[in-house]
């Protein structure tokens, strides 16, 4: 039997999903499909999707389901044959239903949903110090600073703050999370797929807990 891992990362903005994803990708060699990254690339490239998505993103709102669902299912088909790690999708119940239906139609199912949880105060603190490099590498001015302030260690280019990481937008993103994404916690818990991790712990501790959970799940899959 295949031990394919089909994983979803869930949690508020700034809980550390991207940081954990980096480790998981390396440990389990899974394709990483992050809707936020995909959308930012569309915006940068000025594609039709980017043009439509931009105003929603800048306001801290969700991009309409139809647009997101088509975009991500295409990527799962293109890259996710032997498992995947989704970050930032699904974010609404209709998105979760669409994912279920699409992967069930391909004879597959989700392995686990990893909820990295953290309260609003903690994520606001994290996000306000977040800086990103042009190549996507993420730093934190206090907990993970670059060697030279304000520039990327690898390419030496200036670090920037994401437009939607400004405090007013972060507050709206959190409201959106509580209203539209938190219902997915019950949704996945009811299906026995949810695993909770404390995102206020250090990245190394969270990674260790996730690794242990996934090793057990993988073992169970092969039995
Ligand atoms: P993220 O990088 O995951 O925080 O996503 C940045 C922004 O992209 C979000 O605030 C939304 O505007 C948009 N976005 C990302 N993923 C989704 C999704 N699954 N559904 C709707 N909008 C999304």
DSSP summary, beta strand count? 7
Structural class: alpha/beta
Q: What fraction of the residues are assigned to beta strands by DSSP? A: 5-15%
Distance between the termini: 8 Å
CATH topology: Rossmann fold
Helix-strand pattern, N to C?
EHEHHHEHEHEEHHEH
Structurally, the number of domains stands at: 1
Summary?
With 223 residues, this protein is an alpha/beta fold. The chain has a single domain (5-31, 80-222), classed as P-loop containing nucleotide triphosphate hydrolases (Rossmann fold). The chain has helices at residues 17-28, 35-45, 48-59, 65-79, 93-105, 120-128, 167-181, 183-190, 203-222, and strands at 5-10, 32-34, 83-87, 112-117, 130-132, 138-140, 194-198.
What are the salient characteristics of this protein?
7 strands, binds adenosine monophosphate, about 220 residues, Rossmann fold, alpha/beta, five-stranded parallel β-sheet
List the helices and strands and how they pair.
Layout: E1 5-10, H1 17-28, E2 32-34, H2 35-45, H3 48-59, H4 65-79, E3 83-87, H5 93-105, E4 112-117, H6 120-128, E5 130-132, E6 138-140, H7 167-181, H8 183-190, E7 194-198, H9 203-222
Parallel strand pairs: 1-3, 1-4, 2-3, 4-7
Antiparallel strand pairs: 5-6
Bound molecules: adenosine monophosphate (AMP).
């Amino acid at each position: 039997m295949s031990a394919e891992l089909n994983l979803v990362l869930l949690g508020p903005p700034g809980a550390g999903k991207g940081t954990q994803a980096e480790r998981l990708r390396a440990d389990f060699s899974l394709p990483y499909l992050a809707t936020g990254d995909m959308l930012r690339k569309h915006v940068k490239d000025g594609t039709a999707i980017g043009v439509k998505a931009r105003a929603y993103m800048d306001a801290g709102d969700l991009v309409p389901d139809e647009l997101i669902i088509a975009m991500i299912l295409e990527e799962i088909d293109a890259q996710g044959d032997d498992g995947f790690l989704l970050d930032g999708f699904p974010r609404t119940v209709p998105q979760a239903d669409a994912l279920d239906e699409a992967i069930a139609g391909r004879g597959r199912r989700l392995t686990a949903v990893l909820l990295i949880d953290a309260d609003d105060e903690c994520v606001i603190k994290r996000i306000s110090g977040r800086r990103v490099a042009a190549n996507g590498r993420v730093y934190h001015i206090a907990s993970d600073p670059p060697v030279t302030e304000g520039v990327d260690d690898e390419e030496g280019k200036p670090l920037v703050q994401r437009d939607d990481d400004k405090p007013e937008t972060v507050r709206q993103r959190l409201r959106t999370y509580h209203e539209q994404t938190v219902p997915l916690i019950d949704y996945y818990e009811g299906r026995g797929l949810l695993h909770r991790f404390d995102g206020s712990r250090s990245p190394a501790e969270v990674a260790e807990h996730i690794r242990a959970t996934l090793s057990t799940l993988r073992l169970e899959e092969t039995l």
